[in-house]
Amino acid sequence: MYAFQLFSAMNSGSRFIDEVEIYYVIPIMMVIAPIVYWVRLRLFEKYVLGIDLKKIEEELEAPSDLEVE
Length: 69
Known about the structure:
By secondary structure, this protein is an all-alpha fold. The protein is built from three helices and no strands.
């Protein structure tokens, strides 16, 4: 996001700064924001809460000894 603003500020031929950059930033942020949130969620679950989702999935897939016949 700041790269567009920096480029506009460095471009001395531009009369208007920050007028059309938002149209370029929105689609990029629509891709980057979910990826960053997903990475944060995975790190938070693993290191802060101590939850390992792979172990939970393995426990759910393993047959239970308490199955009713």
